[in-house]
Amino acid sequence: MIRVLLADDHHLVRQALRALLEKAEGIEVVGEAEDGREAAKLAQRLRPDVAVLDVAMPVLNGIQAAERIRRLQIPTRVVILSMHKDDALVRRALRGGAHGYLLKSAVSEELLLAVRAAVRNEIYLSPGISRTVVEDLLTVGTTAEPADAFDQLTQREREVLQLIAEGRTNSEIAKLLAISVKTVEKHRANLMSKLDVHDVAGLVRIAVKHKLIFLSE
């Protein structure tokens, strides 16, 4: 039996995905989450075979949640769902540990294929996604990518950046991340320094540019 965790901030979407998965033989949905942070916690507790994560979730997006699950060093494999098929986002997902990337516009039997492929330790991409993405990953290091200040951010700084872009206050961020307000203020100052921006609007623009938040979903 393949044990699956679902994470999407829309309840109706989770219901539809659960119905699709549980109609298939040999698949069981063992948990649901509505944000990436909750998904990572449930993955650690439930240790499902596969976590199906929407890329556009609050608190932690799907890619950040995939990275956190990978760092837990548990056997859970990740399949990402998204409305976006740009190569840069797919690369980030795969480098973050995802074994599948599906376009929401095409999710149906593809989800079953992706889940089963992930269990076999294989990568599954929706047909609408460029296969050059995988080729690029296989040849990583052979072509230098332009330096970007965003790439120098720590994982915690990216989490704080997403929460700032979501409009959370310092107090809310501190509570969500279980850190002090003073620490949040330090992270905020570091972000502005590293990214060379001077206001929240600038941080939001960078968060949107790098797909930490998704204005169209």
Structural notes for this entry:
The protein has 217 residues and is of the alpha/beta class. The chain has two domains: 2-138, Rossmann fold, CATH 3.40.50.2300; 149-209, Orthogonal Bundle (Arc Repressor Mutant, subunit A). It contains ten helices and six strands. Strands 2-1-3-4-5-6 form a six-stranded parallel beta sheet, sandwiched between helices. Helix 2 runs parallel beside helix 3, helix 4 (87-95) packs across helix 6 (132-138) and helix 8 (170-177) packs across helix 9. The longest helix has 15 residues, at 181-195. The protein starts with a strand and ends in an 8-residue tail after the last helix.
Question: So, CATH architecture of the largest domain?
Answer: 3-Layer(aba) Sandwich
Radius of gyration: 17 Å
CATH class of the largest domain: Alpha Beta
Indicate the proportion of strand residues.
5-15%
Biggest β-sheet strands, sense, barrel: 6 strands, parallel
The helicity comes to: 40-55%
Query: Stretches where pLDDT falls below 50 for ≥5 residues?
Result: none
Strand neighbour order, sheet with most strands: 2-1-3-4-5-6
Separation of the first and last Cα atoms: 32 Å
The outline comes out as globular
What is the number of helical segments per DSSP (H or I, 4+ residues)?
10
Order of helices and strands: EHEHEHEHEHEHHHHH
What is the fold-level CATH name, i.e. the topology of the largest domain? Rossmann fold
Total of domains: 2
Count of β-strands: 6
